[in-house]
Amino acid sequence: MPVYKRILLKLSGESLMGAQKYGLDTAVLNSYATQIKAVVDSGVQVGIVIGGGNIFRGLSGVKKGFDRVKGDQMGMLATVINSLALQTALEGEGAKAKVLTSIRMEPIGELYSKAKALELMAGGCVVIIAGGTGNPYFTTDTASALRGVEIEAEVLLKGTRVDGVYTADPEKDPTATKFSTITFDEVYDRKLKVMDLTAFTMCKENDLPIVVFDMDTPGNLCKIVDGEPIGTVVKNA
Ligand SMILES: Nc1ncnc2c1ncn2[C@@H]1O[C@H](COP(=O)(O)OP(=O)(O)OP(=O)(O)O)[C@@H](O)[C@H]1O
Ligand SMILES: O=c1ccn([C@@H]2O[C@H](COP(=O)(O)O)[C@@H](O)[C@H]2O)c(=O)[nH]1
């Protein structure tokens, strides 16, 4: 029995590469689509924001001599590619899915509005919000916090490559230990970097809890939605 009526799911762009070094792995897309469909079938309304790190990030463009704004625009377009790929995978699973874009680009997707997103979700359609916030100098973590607050989601589920928030980056420090729950203030105090601070602040100020979890373990998403203690919950004290 789901404990949430509406969720905002943030999917990692980098995870969509699977074992590859770049681009999209259809096995990962299909696995995510199966899990998302199961959640929708249980009656939960689902909004999704996807990263673009498997294709392009503005900051890595800057290192190669790109203008930051153009680089970020390329990164936002990368999230549109990922969104269309996930929409295709969801439709292949028999789910209803629609891409709304933060930047006008019909006919690829209709322009995002809160009203449109709510109307689609109420009809059982997965709404994939593409193009980040539509503005440079932000990330899709911040876009997911913003859209999560806007669509009045009860939780932001950050599906990523690690299974929660640790005392240090677990990909660099094997002695790091995992939190089951942590407050936004403690994340600031310990300077933990699993999500960017703009995203954390948006969630803290609007009282939107975050669950950081490993999306690559099939079944995790359904378990969280059913209230099982998977990953790390970040919330106000
Ligand atoms: N304290 C920490 N606890 C957990 N993970 C951490 C921590 N500090 C840094 N990380 C790193 O944060 C990463 C996840 O955040 P990040 O936003 O970079 O990835 P993502 O959501 O997978 O990326 P994207 O969507 O941009 O492709 C993990 O891969 C992990 O190595
Ligand atoms: O609101 C936004 C969101 C994203 N960008 C750019 O896109 C890439 C990819 O997003 P990730 O969150 O890193 O996966 C990001 O690096 C930015 O360059 C943006 O400009 N504005």
From TrEMBL:
It is an enzyme of class 2 (transferase). Residues 5-214 form the Aspartate/glutamate/uridylate kinase domain. Inhibited by UTP. Its main location: cytoplasm. InterPro entries: AceGlu_kinase-like_sf, Asp/Glu/Uridylate_kinase, Uridylate_kinase, Uridylate_kinase_bac. Pathway: Pyrimidine metabolism; CTP biosynthesis via de novo pathway; UDP from UMP (UMPK route): step 1/1. GO terms for biological process: 'de novo' CTP biosynthetic process; UDP biosynthetic process. It is found in: Cytoplasm. UMP binds at residues 52, 72, 133-140. One of its GO terms (cellular component) is cytoplasm. Its EC number is 2.7.4.22. Keywords: ATP-binding, Cytoplasm, Kinase, Nucleotide-binding, Pyrimidine biosynthesis, Transferase. ATP binds at residues 10-13, 53, 57, 160, 166, 169. The keyword Cell division does not apply. It holds the Pfam family AA_kinase. It catalyses: UMP + ATP = UDP + ADP. GO terms for molecular function: ATP binding; UMP kinase activity. Homohexamer. Belongs to the UMP kinase family. Catalyzes the reversible phosphorylation of UMP to UDP. This is Uridylate kinase.
